[in-house]
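3.2 Worked example (two chains)
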Amino acid sequence: MQDEVFGSSYSAAIYISRILTLPDGRSKVFVLGESGIETELASENVPFVGGTDPSLRREIEPSDFTSIASGEALDPEVGVVLAGLDFHINYLKLSLAFAYLQRGAKFLATNVDSTLPNAHALFPGAGTIAAPLTLMTGKEPIRCGKPSQAMMDAIEGKFAFDRKRACMVGDRLNTDICFGNEGGLGGTLAVLTGVSKREEWDKEDAPIKPMFWADKLGDLLIVPS
């Protein structure tokens, strides 16, 4: 079962290791994210820095400005900045990421979800980590998660499934349902246990609509009497 789980962090690792072309000597990834991203990069033998490094979990100091500006604090082998969900984001990490991007590193994001459902509430999602860098650089990241069709192609390449016999199930219109619709899957099912609400796709001019919907995924187990 574990090898059938294809998350956005794994998609990013696949993209970096097998698709992205990087200059010689610049194969490392500067990670804005947690250990899950590091695990997926390691599984594809992609070298990385940043991430859960405890030395970066602190306030920025005056000397950091000088060392980052001069390049002394930067790893010359970094060729990619990968932004994901980071529970310890700070000014120091963003400054390092921005410096790498200014020096030509590729800008990737595991996903750009604006919010994260948890404990029956919404919290900042992975997209809020990439957003400041987008504002700084004026450039959008390459998106490795839903609704990117690069992720769909990677999944199809690994599992060789028939798209017309697959159904995308999710709770967010602009990622889950858009991913299935644009990927030409046989169906899309929206569930009302997360972010998007029924009134969003009931509008006549709604840009994204699921083929089916359910109050919750468990409803699929209910057999009509």
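3.2.1 Second chain
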Amino acid sequence: MESFHLGLGISAQGRSALSKDPEKKRRKNHFNLYTAIHETESIHTNRPINPKTKQPIEPAHNFEVHLEPDSYTEEKFALFQNYQLHVHNESRSEITKGGFKRFLCSGLGQSSRLKDGVEQKLGSYHQCYRLDGRLVAVGVLDLLPGCVSSVYLIYHQDVKEWYFGKLSALREISLALEGGYQHYYMDPENYSWDSLDADYLARLSARKYVSMSRERLLQLPPRRLTEDDELEMNNVISRLPGYLHASAGDNAMRRSAFGAGMPGLMSLDEVQEKIDLGKWLVNFGKMPVHLEDLEIWAKCDIRNPSSPKRIIAELAAALGPALVSQLVLEL
């Protein structure tokens, strides 16, 4: 956190004065999450006195963080659009205001309660990060009686080097502690839990991202992954039991039917083997056409849980080959 704080532009005089801070030695040996997180905010920034002017030395930039209801604004949508364009490589046509509202602005209603004499906010909120008044990041949170649940994070391309993913996670952990929420949840792939044992630590040391559910399925050892391993890790995700998928598009926050263990549901492999989805008729204008005749059909990836082809495959898996051959879709 200290490097981020200095990166915001504290002057040389300020750094010199801070180096003489009597708290410096104690803080080297005793880490306090609350202090480290909040000291970057302008309201908490230490302002040493300039020995020449006898006036406080103001930081070069103003950093603020506010928690507010998950309401829609054009400013938030512009930030979301920038994030999806640069991080997820989506086209502008794929990024819609309607999708953004449904995905990140229509969660739980807001309320509050008193817990141990402290007000505890409940519901869906946006944690907004502003630099010099400009919105540079938004963390989407569900605040529940027993936990802070991290739903999504968006940030502007201009601040990508400041590691807002790590910064927001630390701040959200601090929020859970300060508000008495007890637990902090990050967005899961599924609801399985693993002990932080020697094997897990070895995997964390070997690579940047660890998914025990995927690695168990592929039986991967705790070593650095090869290119083939990483490809398999990406492809295997939809086969996970209880897999949870979140996308930024109109079909956001969908849970994949495949792998959910639903009795009688065909698997994706069975659908592809026994049903020619492209031949399924769909009403298009005044006459039915085959799905494969639609231009978008060839562009859809059936492995993507949010793609139209995947959604139609899930419907076919529930209906079965006989009914699919007799029905015409209404989209």
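3.3 Remarks
Residues 1-18, 243-254 have pLDDT under 50 and may be disordered.
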